[in-house]
Design a protein that fits this description.
By secondary structure, the protein is α/β, with parallel strands linked by helices. It has 14 helices and 15 strands.
Length: 371
């Protein structure tokens, strides 16, 4: 159980509230250490803390020692890096005082969907790259004593479990990107945390509504081939200049099914007439640790930014890189239009909201058609 800093006499909610929440915590979780939790709460001990590098929140699972981790996990993709240090200028003024990653999609912040996607793919170690004014992301995935006590007192057990589960999704760590120097730089910040293990990169602007199908397939492909994997999707030719573009050497992937293809090169944001294909790099990657060496050798571009696409192109000079082509299930919620689409479609898919919301939309469109 999470216990706040300080002694009970210094807490605004007092000893009885702490004891009450400890009892509820024990009843909900069935934790055999109930007496220890109660003793900790009543004895005003220091807070129980997650061990590990950087600032860590999340489950208090048994941690592997460094040697054990090296033997057991070196070839498994169990770590994800989520860059979330951007300023969110496309959503100003909404993002002036809150992170764009915390904008709600129906009733969950966007970044929660991304974290849940990683967890469904078997990832249990997540590093979020943050920046200034991003503290609310950390707070969202941490315990909140006062709210939990309020929900427990009101008998709102379903909400209480949902709130607590956020802190138990995975081992979530945070590190700041000191300057906004591009996606490549944000990924390079993760080097000390990742070490010599393979890892996934999930961009928080890309919301995947596919039960982690694409990420799972990319991880399986990495395990089978031992090479980095980049997510690709076909986009209209006019839009390719907004993305990194894949060069497949003239190979045309199947139009009907997801497919793994061998990359020949990558071009960063080409003009439509210069694009080698209409396959754009999407915000999901699986890398081996060699990507960090490639990032070290990338020369900064415009504005001093280090581009991840440039590092992948450099990696292609010495090793194979594959593209995983997928067809549907992705929203760019950094775009206002896609943000609205995601909100509408996810709401329609909900049993508790879908029927009434669909009826409202049908009525709305009928009334608009009569104007």
């Amino acid at each position: 159980m999470w216990i706040p800093r300080g002694r009970v006499g210094e807490w605004p909610f007092g000893r009885q509230a702490v004891l009450a929440l400890a009892r509820v915590d024990c009843q909900c979780t069935g934790d055999p250490r109930a007496s220890l939790k109660l003793a900790t709460a009543a004895g005003c001990a220091r807070p129980l803390r997650q061990t590990g590098s950087l600032r860590a929140h999340g489950t208090r699972r048994k941690r592997l020692m460094p040697l054990e981790r090296s033997c057991e996990m070196t070839n498994q993709v169990r770590t994800a890096v989520i860059p979330a240090a951007g300023l969110g200028t496309r959503f100003l003024p909404a993002t002036k005082a809150q992170p764009k990653e915390m904008l709600p999609v129906v009733d969950k912040p966007a970044i929660q969907y991304v974290v849940e996607e990683a967890v469904r793919a078997g990832i249990d170690d997540i590093l979020i790259i943050t920046g200034r004014n991003k503290r609310s992301i950390e707070d969202h995935f941490d315990r909140q004593f006062e709210l939990e006590y309020f929900l427990a007192e009101r008998g709102k057990d379903e909400l209480l479990h949902e709130i607590r589960d956020l802190a138990e999704l995975a081992d979530i760590h945070y590190v700041r990107q000191g300057e906004p120097l591009g996606l490549g730089h944000a990924v390079s910040v993760a080097r000390k945390h990742v070490g010599d293990r393979p890892f996934a990169v999930l961009l928080a602007d890309d919301l995947m509504v596919d039960d982690s199908k694409v990420l799972n397939a990319m991880i399986d492909s990495y395990m089978n081939h031992g090479s980095s994997i980049v997510a690709l999707r076909d986009v209209p030719p006019a839009d390719i200049s907004s993305y990194g573009c894949a060069d497949l050497g003239g190979v045309v992937p199947s139009p009907d099914a997801d497919e793994l293809v061998l990359l020949r090169g990558l071009v960063e944001k080409p003009a439509p007439e210069d694009a080698p294909s209409s396959l754009a790099v999407m915000g999901r990657y699986v890398f081996g640790p060699e990507i960090f060496d490639a990032l070290d050798h990338v020369k900064p571009g415009f504005g001093g930014e280090i581009q991840l696409t440039d590092a992948i192109a450099l990696l292609l000079e010495s090793s194979s890189v594959y593209g995983y082509v997928f067809r549907e299930g992705r929203y760019d919620i950094g775009s206002k239009l896609d943000y609205l689409r995601a909100t509408v479609e996810l709401a329609l898919a909900r049993d508790d909201l879908g029927p009434d919301f669909e009826a409202f939309l049908i009525d709305l469109m009928a009334r608009r058609a009569q104007r």
